[in-house]
Amino acid sequence: QVQLVESGGGLVQAGGSLTLSCAASGSHLYLLDMAWYRQVPGHQRELVAQLTIRSETHYADSVKGRFTIWRDHKDTLHLEMNSLKPEDTARYYCNTPLEHLNWGQGTQVTVSS
């Protein structure tokens, strides 16, 4: 069974940067289209960035130009987040764009104003 493990979250001031990581056991992420999601308590989970196996990227309008999704040579998925805003505060998760895999615990990102 595939397990996703997200890491890299934290507390950062507005305008700062963080890079999140997503590793998987039991699968190879490079074989899958992958995505980063975020969720605020009481709200629906939002897809913020996608990366296809052909290295095409897609971003939600709210993060376009500030976030970058990429995969490294160790088959770890990353989300580089720059110019962070308080409204980026959320728990961040990785999964496929169709949510095929079991959800991990996520990693909390908190942006202070």
What attributes does this structure have?
single chain, 113 residues, mainly beta, six-stranded mixed beta sheet, four-stranded antiparallel beta sheet, 10 strands, 48% strand
Kindly describe this structure.
With 113 residues, this protein is mainly β. It is built from no helices and ten strands. The strands form two sheets. A six-stranded mixed β-sheet has the order 2-10-9-4-5-6, with no helix packed on it. A hairpin with a 5-residue loop joins β5 (46-51) and β6 (57-59). The relative contact order is 0.33.
Quaternary state of this entry equals single chain
Look at the helices and sheets and give the structural class: mainly beta
Enumerate the strands of the largest sheet in spatial order, edge to edge or round the barrel. 2-10-9-4-5-6
Q: Overall mean pLDDT score? A: 95
How many E strands? 10
Distance between the termini: 40 Å
Radius of gyration: 13 Å
**Sheet with the most strands?**
6 strands, mixed
Shape label: globular
Helix content: under 10%
Uncertain spans, ≥5 residues at pLDDT below 50?
A: none
Count of DSSP H/I helices? 0
Provide the β-strand percentage band.
Answer: over 45%
Helix and strand pattern: EEEEEEEEEE
What is this structure, in a nutshell?
With 113 residues, the chain is mainly beta.
Write the layout of secondary structure elements.
Blueprint: E1 3-7, E2 10-13, E3 18-25, E4 34-39, E5 46-51, E6 57-59, E7 67-71, E8 77-81, E9 90-95, E10 107-112
Parallel strand pairs: 2-10
Antiparallel strand pairs: 1-3, 3-8, 4-5, 4-9, 5-6, 7-8, 9-10
